[in-house]
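Practice set, problem 2.
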Amino acid sequence: TQQISEIIDHINQVHEQIVAEFGQNLASSQVVVQQASSLKDGFIEFANGLRKMKANMIQLV
């Protein structure tokens, strides 16, 4: 029973480690998604700026 108890303890430790690592990976994934979203917003703003610049250039000509 001592060995069984040790095995169960070991399984629990590994399980806790897996859960912790999964939580960290999930948090990292959320950060990546947020960064991608803000990058997309930045590109949209950049594209809008180019459109305005083009409109201004046309008016100048």
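Problem 2, part (b): a different protein.
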Amino acid sequence: MDKRTIKVSPKNLRAASQAILVKLGMGNEGAHEAAKVLVATDLRGIDSHGVSMLKGYFSQFKDGILNPNPNWKIVREAPATATVDGDQALGISIGAELMELAMKKARKFGIGMVTIANCGHLGAVGHFAMLAAQQDMVGVCMTASSGGVGILPTFGAEPRLGANPIGLAAPADQEPPLLIDIASSVPIANKVQLLAETGQLVPAGWISDQKGTPIMEPSKAPSPGNFFHLPLGSTRTMGSNKGYALSLIPEALATLLAGSMPSMQRLRNGMKGSFMAYDISKFTDITEYKQGMDYMLKTLRETKPAPGNERVVYPGLLEHEIEIDRLQNGIPISFEIAQWMKDTAQGLGVEIELS
């Protein structure tokens, strides 16, 4: 374990996160759901989108950006689709309901899709895709920026895009499920912040300088505002045009389908998201599908590794293994985050236990 971290039980971390969110004005149900998402994300090793996000949520609640008691509503609906106005809800507190709505439609029509605009952070999109996989469906979830664009288009010197992540999860029979959760940038913003907090260098090809020139050697994390994020691939030679293109998919399928304007307008009118569910049984036999998925994933897992590598893994396998370990041994969080949670809880007049 990193000397800069402590380990906390999932139960205590959920309780602490929920207690803080309740004190910020959220109802128990919404705070419980949000805390559940954060800790589930940490359990899978996606530390950049777990309880480390609480600090940002705290500021957004205090500044009136997030609505602690939203009245989100469906503003347009068809048999297999719905468009939702989130009323500036914290996205992770309602994301499960949105995916459940998509799944309800998919059970009847084979495919269900729900888009949302005007909401707060939707967290790790793979979490919501997994909710569908757990119901023998293929789940897809993607989000687009709320206006905080910090990623350069290929060849660009001005940021135009958000990280705009895409998640997909699909069930298997004996193998852990396929889980893809990727941002269209090399890192996401919070990852650079976490590296700075733990004294680590930013790897080559993650960020550019203020002129848009990629920094292609390990470097100390610059202060916010003094760098831009690079699209997946880093440079055109290394395929950044593909990461750049990926970032436009959530703009087309989430932002614009939710009735919002492109993130590059920097309107700061909330996150945009898209939740899709595909009922496998409406397309093919579910048993055959899961057996085929098993074969594919097992074949990938048993691929002979190249020299210097221990093994081949498929998307979602490492996260599954990390979850097993953290359920048993606790979730590592940085001293900085733990201290912030303790100080914040004390300031809000609530007791929490981080052990």
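Answer key, part (b): The chain has three domains: 1-69+317-355, 72-185+235-301, 187-229. Residues 56 and 95 are 18 Å apart (CA to CA).
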